[in-house]
Amino acid sequence: MEEKDIRRRLIDNTKQLLQDNVTVTIKDIAEASFVNIAAVNYYFGSKERLMRIVIEETINDVKQYVETQVIFRDRGQPTEKTLEALMTYIYNFSLENMGILHYLFLSHEFKDRSSSMLVDTFLSDNTFTKQVYQSLERTLGISDPKELFAKYMMLFSMFSIPLFIQISQMRAMGPIAIDTFRDPEFRQYYIKNIMRVIRQ
User: Fold this and answer.
1) Which of 6, 49, 83, 146 is such that its CA lies 20 to 30 A from the CA of 129?
2) 3-state secondary structure 10-46
3) Domain residue ranges in the chain
4) What is the mean pLDDT of residues 72-82?
C-alpha cells in the first residue's frame, strides 16, 4: 500500500473514532488502521498533527455545506426550507462528531491554534462569515446588525449541543440527555422552535 493510502486510512479512521469517542489514543488509531503505533508519528509527526488535519478537513466539510446551502443556494428555494436544512445539518453534525467538538471546545490536549479553528471559521470576522451575513440579510430582510448577529448565532448554536450533553452528564443525568438529543421528535421540536425565533 502506498504512503498516501496509509495516510488517508489513518485520517479516515481517526474521524470515525471521533464520532463516538471524546478520547482517542494513538493505540486506538493504530489498531483501527491495522498499523503499528509508530506509523502515526512516522506519517504525521505526532498525534496532535494528525488531529489537526482531521479537524481541518471536518470543518472544511461543514464550511462547504454552508456555502452550498446559504451563500450559493438556489434563489428559488424557500427560505424556511433552506435554513431548516442548514440547522438540521449542523444539529446532526454535532451529534455525529462529539469527539471532534470535544477536542475543539473542552480538550487541553492541543497546544496550537487547532482548538480555535471552529471559532475562527464560523464566529469571527472573515470573508466567509461576511458572505453568510450578506446572504442572511437578503434572505431574511434584516438590516439591523445586532438582530442579524443574533440570528446568525442561533443558526450555529447547534455546535454547542455536546457541551449541553456533557454538562448534563456531570450533573448525574446520565445518558438521558444524549438519548433525548438523538430522538427525532426532539430534534424536530428543537429546530422548529429556533426557526420560529429566527423568522420573527
Assistant:
1) 49
2) HHHHHHHHHHHCCCCCHHHHHHHHCCCCHHHHHHHCC
3) 55-199
4) 67
